[in-house]
């Protein structure tokens, strides 16, 4: 039989991928590769850190290059196996995704450096660094994918890596925390899968750009409200929003302190990112309908987090509640949906990634110097190290949203956006939760830092590799607090790109669909 | 064909929720497994259930002429089955380890991470 020439361009992307566009898939691919190498080298404990830190530095570089590329050229898409979208699985990087990915990579790098002295030999033998790299593969993949089922797969990748990290050490209280963490998170991702199944049944596509276009066209007859509500529940659970937040205070204080720091920086923010992606970009009209529900949830989350923090004696548990309180601010921004609200939510998420990681590291160092995490027994840290106390104080100011640090601007944006539509109560809750947080962390500073030490503090000097990430994260929050203009304008563009995804859709379907 | 499947899925979901409300972790674990299967069946039903319609496109046509089952949901389930199986394996080990270390499989008695009478922070020096 004579071979008839087949027109491949009907099914495949025929133009070769531009070299710069390969950057879209490199962050997750690089993490999986580096994770595999680290897994092979798991017996050489001294090598682990020396391989992982440069690998994560490369990840930061890749994400930074991708950010520059996306900022200059708009959203970038690459499809797997060259199949034309929506049939090929698309990776689409837009400003929002890349900003989250870059902040995540910075946090992971800081964690890896901090872990050089914080994770002992047995932690390395049980695979701290391979798990960290695989966690970053899941996180980067979730931020950069343009396919909603693929997002589910990346969620599972990061979830299974986080299981490995949270049980590292296998102390009984860790097992206790891990049980609650694992079951509740698994139920949340199952809910996500249910919704995605329904979504496929409704749209017949999983490509997010395709969904956004089809939802806009056929809104009247499609049952989109169900999807929006289910996604809100599923991702709200992942983000630890009230009233489905119980897994977070039950587990975040149990693992090694670096693991807590990484979780606080990365995991709940992936939930917020997924909420932004689905509710702002895919189902904006349904989000508007749900606006009051999300606003109430956000307000309750803010207050619960701040009040919970006030009642904790263990500083690690106190920080867990502060993570929740921050999620509330992001939900408040999400509920408004205006450029200021969405921008504020994105900015607050980036700020929270950096600051919460830094705070857990500071708590870890305080615990290492004092031998306890209990506020009733901590003391004398200011006399012990003024530099460390100053760094902690900056982070305390930042988490409370006090100027001149990075927590101030997003809170102002969210509160202003709330006042613009007359939701005074929401703005008031933002400020009230900030006030309560100030009291909670102010008391930590008063008791743990200023109060004279009850017993003798450890005489060990804080190793440079433990202090350096803390200095770097603190510097980031100070720099973006003092000079927010560049970041603010990028975030405004990112928020516009989410609210009006024409550029996103155009990058997936260059010829229109 | 869809209606009996829908009823079965409903049954699976209710059984899963009932089991997950238990305080004993083994039952919760079984509930999670059932929940995973309920979701798989749900996605499977989404892709149409038809008997003996071969998904073959006759010559000269671009789309199948008869209504066939959609293969994509089946591919999705395959992914989900593998993932839920690996999670089941991990959770099984975790629950067993918890039973060994904490001496109970009752979730209410697992109060190591969140002690029942945790003291409040001091109100002064």
TrEMBL record, chain A:
Q: Which family does it belong to?
A: Belongs to the CPA3 antiporters (TC 2.A.63) subunit D family.
* Keyword terms, alphabetized: Cell membrane, Membrane, Transmembrane, Transmembrane helix
Q: GO cellular component terms?
A: plasma membrane
Q: Where is the NADH:quinone oxidoreductase/Mrp antiporter transmembrane domain?
A: 147-436
InterPro entries, per this entry? CPA3_Na-H_Antiporter_D, NADH_UbQ_OxRdtase, ND/Mrp_TM
Q: How is this protein situated with respect to the membrane? A: Multi-pass membrane protein
**Record's Pfam families?**
Proton_antipo_M
Name of the featured protein: Multicomponent Na+:H+ antiporter subunit D
TM spans (from-to): 22-41, 50-71, 91-116, 128-145, 151-169, 181-203, 223-248, 260-284, 290-311, 318-339, 345-369, 381-402, 422-450, 462-483
Q: Which PANTHER family match?
A: NA(+)_H(+) ANTIPORTER SUBUNIT D1, NADH DEHYDROGENASE
Q: Which domain of life is it from?
A: Bacteria
Q: Which organism is it from?
A: Shinella granuli
Question: Which NCBIfam families does the record match to this protein?
Answer: PRK12663.1 (NF009306)
Can you name one GO molecular function term for this protein? Answer: NADH dehydrogenase (ubiquinone) activity
User: In which compartments does the protein localize?
Assistant: Cell membrane; Membrane
Q: Report the record's Gene Ontology biological process terms.
A: ATP synthesis coupled electron transport
From TrEMBL, chain B:
Q: What is this protein called?
A: Multisubunit sodium/proton antiporter MrpC subunit
- Describe the family membership recorded for this protein in Swiss-Prot or TrEMBL: Belongs to the CPA3 antiporters (TC 2.A.63) subunit C family.
Where does this chain mainly localize?
A: membrane
Alphabetically list the UniProt keywords. Answer: Cell membrane, Membrane, Transmembrane, Transmembrane helix
What is the annotated localization of this protein? Answer: Cell membrane
On whether Transmembrane helix is a keyword of this UniProt record, the answer is yes
GO CC aspect terms: plasma membrane
**Whose protein is this, by species?**
Shinella granuli
The keyword Lipoprotein is assigned to this record: no
Give the transmembrane ranges: 6-21, 28-45, 75-96
NCBIfam families in the cross-refs:
PRK12658.1
- By its UniProt entry, which InterPro entries does this protein fall under? CPA3_antiporter_subunitC, NUOK/Mnh_C1-like
Membrane protein topology class: Multi-pass membrane protein
Pfam families under this entry? Oxidored_q2 (PF00420)
């Amino acid at each position: 039989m004579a071979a008839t020439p087949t027109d491949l361009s009907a099914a495949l992307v025929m133009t070769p991928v531009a070299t710069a566009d390969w950057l879209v898939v490199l962050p997750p691919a690089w993490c999986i590769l580096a994770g595999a190498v680290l897994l092979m080298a798991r017996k050489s404990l001294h090598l682990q850190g020396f391989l992982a830190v440069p690998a994560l530095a490369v990840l930061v570089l890749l994400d930074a290059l991708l950010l520059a590329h996306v900022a200059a050229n708009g959203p970038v898409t690459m499809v797997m196996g060259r199949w034309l979208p929506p049939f090929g699985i698309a990776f689409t990087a837009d400003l929002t995704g890349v900003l989250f990915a870059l902040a995540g990579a910075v946090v992971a790098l800081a964690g890896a450096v901090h872990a050089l002295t914080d994770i002992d030999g047995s932690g390395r033998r049980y695979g701290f660094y391979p798990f960290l790299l695989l966690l970053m593969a899941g996180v980067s993949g979730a931020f950069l994918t343009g396919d909603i089922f693929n997002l589910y797969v990346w969620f599972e990748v990061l979830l299974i890596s986080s299981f490995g990290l949270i049980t590292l050490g296998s102390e009984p209280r860790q097992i206790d925390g891990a049980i609650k963490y694992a079951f509740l998170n698994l139920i949340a991702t199952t809910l996500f899968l249910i919704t995605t199944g329904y979504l496929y049944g409704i749209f017949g596509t999983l490509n997010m750009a395709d969904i956004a276009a089809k939802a806009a066209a056929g809104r009247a007859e499609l049952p989109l409200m169900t999807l929006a509500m289910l996604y809100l529940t599923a991702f709200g659970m992942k983000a630890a929003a009230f009233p489905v937040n119980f897994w977070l205070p039950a587990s975040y204080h149990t693992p090694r302190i670096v693991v807590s720091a990484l979780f606080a920086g990365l995991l709940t923010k992936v939930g917020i990112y997924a909420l932004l992606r689905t509710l702002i970009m895919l189902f904006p009209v349904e989000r508007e309908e749900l606006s009051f529900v999300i606003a109430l949830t956000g307000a309750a989350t803010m207050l619960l987090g701040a009040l919970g923090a006030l009642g904790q004696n263990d500083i690690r548990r106190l920080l867990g509640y502060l993570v929740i309180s921050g999620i509330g601010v992001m939900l408040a921004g999400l509920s408004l949906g205006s450029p200021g609200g969405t921008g504020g939510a994105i900015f607050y998420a980036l700020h929270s990634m950096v600051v919460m990681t830094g705070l857990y590291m500071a708590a870890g160092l305080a615990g290492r110097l004092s031998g306890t995490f209990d506020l009733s027994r901590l003391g004398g840290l200011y006399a012990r190290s003024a530099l460390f106390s100053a760094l902690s104080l900056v982070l305390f100011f930042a988490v409370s949203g006090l100027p001149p640090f990075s927590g101030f601007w997003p809170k102002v944006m969210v509160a202003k956006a709330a006042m613009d539509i007359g939701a005074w109560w929401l703005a008031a809750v933002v400020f009230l939760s900030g006030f309560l947080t100030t009291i909670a962390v102010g008391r930590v500073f008063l008791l743990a830092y200023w109060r004279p030490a009850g017993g003798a503090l450890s005489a060990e000097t804080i190793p440079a590799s433990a202090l350096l990430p803390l200095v770097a994260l603190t510097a980031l929050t100070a720099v973006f607090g003092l000079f927010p203009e560049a970041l603010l304008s990028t975030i405004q563009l990112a928020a516009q790109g989410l609210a009006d995804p024409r550029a996103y859709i155009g990058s997936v379907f260059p010829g229109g669909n | 064909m869809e209606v009996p499947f829908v009823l079965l899925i409903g049954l699976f979901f209710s059984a899963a929720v009932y089991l997950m409300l238990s305080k004993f972790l083994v039952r919760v674990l079984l509930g999670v497994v059932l929940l995973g299967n309920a979701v798989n069946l749900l996605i499977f039903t989404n892709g149409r259930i038809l008997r003996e319609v071969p998904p073959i496109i006759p010559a000269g046509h671009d789309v199948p002429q008869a209504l066939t089952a959609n293969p994509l949901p089946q591919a999705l389930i395959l992914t989900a089955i593998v993932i839920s199986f690996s999670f089941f394996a991990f959770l099984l080990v975790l629950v067993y380890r918890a039973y060994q270390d904490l001496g109970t499989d009752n979730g209410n008695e697992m109060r190591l991470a969140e002690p029942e009478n945790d003291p409040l922070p001091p109100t002064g020096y």
